[in-house]
Amino acid sequence: MAEPFAYLGFSDGAPAEDSLSGDSGESCPPDLRRLGTAGRKGGGPMSGDVITLVSTRIYPGDGEPFPGCIRIGGGKIVGVEKMSQAVRPGNAASCGEIVLDVGDSIVIPGLIDIHVHGSGGFSAADGSATLEGMAKVLARSGVTAFQPALGAAPVDEMERSIEGAYQFASGQGGGAAEMLGIHLEGPFLSRKFPGAMAEQNLLDPDIPLLSRWVELARGNIGRVTLAPELPGATEMVEFLVERGIRASIGHTAATYDEAVRGFRAGISIVTHTFNAMRGFHHREPGALGAALTEKGIFLELIADCLHVHPAAMSLMVASCGVDSVVLVSDAMPAAGSPPGEYEFLGRRVTLGLDGKVTLEDGTLAGSSAFLKDCLRNMVERVGVSFEDALRMATVNPAKALGVFDRKGTLASGKDADVVVLSEDYEVLACWTKGVEVKNVFRDGEA
Ligand SMILES: [Fe+2]
Asked: How many angstroms is it from 3 CA to the middle of ligand 1?
């Protein structure tokens, strides 16, 4: 790995030699490139600063890696430039900017986890403060945007959680992952495939109830998972699509035909493909067969290698293509915590030494993974290229939720959601909308 991961410092406004920015023609004396944060009280960059991030390995999310720089300022990416072979990263100090040369460390767009119940001891269901805690934990793990999932719970609890999500959304500040609406993963699900949810909390599709929740959330419901074979499901899908809310198929006993009818009605996402759905049979391909063959949809994959065997993960990629698969963690609140007993969805669960989270009867109850672990699994256990795996954790989730115009790739004009990863998938630095969340190059700790 390349030597100095250091702030090259503030260049005090003078133009730069070998500038990558291309908009300054003069030279910047080397003595103006100071290491660390000298000259600035209080440590890290300020919100108005422009930061130039230099790396030999920038993966934009939707293309080949290149050496170059990413410039971020005002919360946005303001420049993406490839470096000519003649220019060494260490010579890239630009003037009036903070330059951070990360050498061979990998620069990627922030990861987007569209299915996550909690992290670091914080649950998405427990209100605004815990959502904020969760958003901060996620950002430190390289996730810059997320869609928190609420599993089926008694109606009054669901409503408290929805209200909490609204409060979080309206007061959300910087330095944490951005919430992309909430995901109601229930209660309109099949009692035959409850997963870890308590069956008494599952309901048939009830549009007046959902309508009340849509009102309560005030624009913050991003997705609803439902079982399309239930009575009233088609009408519910249409209700969602009319309001710009994603409809997702999951926890379903749907036959192939029932699932296809759901897609025709407007379902655009498959919730944790393979898990909690009717499996594949060659004479009745089931919801799984419909999901794997439907075009133009996005399919979640819990890529912890515990929910789905790597061979099935490989089959899914081969069947659907790299543009359709969306890696998700499905992490429950104990993700990032030591093995032991925890509570999830109102039930007692065990987090084992192997990372598996189970109910007493062995049913899987979410995961303990972070999305960066899923990225790694796709590369190391499934054999997908890093570029393709990254697309499944950045570009595809952004498209699935309709935010690709502002997230998902390192491109000028998009939100400055940028992560620096080590060779070992450790998050070395992270910015969410240009706000620094973590920076081991300056702080010196992981
Ligand atoms: Fe689920």
From this structure: 44
